[in-house]
Predict the 3D structure of the following.
Amino acid sequence: MNLSGRNFLKVLDFTTEELQYLIDLAVELKNLKHQGKDHRYLLGKNIACIFEKDSTRTRCSFEVASYDLGMHVTYLGPTGSQMGKKETIKDTARVLGRMFDGIEYRGFEQSKVEELAEYSGVPVWNGLTNEFHPTQMLADFMTMLEHFGHLKGLNLVYFGDARFNTGNSLMIMSAKMGVNFTCCAPKELWPSEELINTAKIIASENNCTITLTEDVNEGAAGKDVVYTDVWVSMGEPDEVWAERINLLTPYRVTTELMNMTSENSIFLHCLPSFHNTDTTIGKDIAEKFGVTEMEVTDEVFESAKSKVFEEAENRMHTIKAVMYATLK
Ligand code: CP
Ligand code: NVA
């Protein structure tokens, strides 16, 4: 498998075999890391990490993975560079491409990361856009593989805002990997018709299904993997909170809901998560709307079924696999 020189912009750009290869490579790199074995395979290379939105996991994963591979990292945050304000993406791409071997980008429109890739001349990795979150997918499916020992034939349900980065990406990744995907959400929060149709074509090639439902009981029944994400994503206006709370409260992942899933089921969440009121936003929402837990209850989040911290760790191993595969 040769992915050298490739970008990693969205799951749609990759074959099932390529995605499986990246997950398997991440498993190998995780073993090396846990055994304390040197794997500075990209010694002396330099990467830039551009973040137009906040991040804990993605930023730390790119940085730690780079250091483990022997690379140097330059971080460009939401403020402090010329990008987007005094300089176009196209110009920034052509500058950074002359200095760095690879570029990570987290921001708003998918078209921006695509433009960066088009003009930089070096591999560009999507660290999250409004539309897609592809590195998250590798970590999620690696975590599922570790738990179940296989991916094909598993049943995954996503509860919540399914028309944004995580929901869109999970639907496509499931279709690619032969996982039966159910979107359980109010109709207005389903992925676009166009993306659903694309997912259905890919799913039929991989002998799996794409189901959309508003019914929570149907959504939960017999599922192996229950996935949710925040109800309001980064970059969305504060005004949408009231409407989202109203629409999505019936879709909160509770113990009652988990009891309807398969015996060996797991709970996943890309994080960060509002499962209590111990954050400034969590506290603020509780004061304004009287909601103390949002997309998932604290009980489920802290339960034995919850694999969210294994999943978070796997962000680092999978991002390392993407950088190694595309830069070697
Ligand atoms: N899951 C994820 O992308 O987390 P961060 O926003 O902390 O990077
Ligand atoms: N949908 C979330 C994912 C965070 C990792 C957001 O875009 O904020």
About this structure: Strands lie at 46-51, 72-76, 102-106, 124-126, 155-159, 180-184, 210-213, 225-228, 266-269.
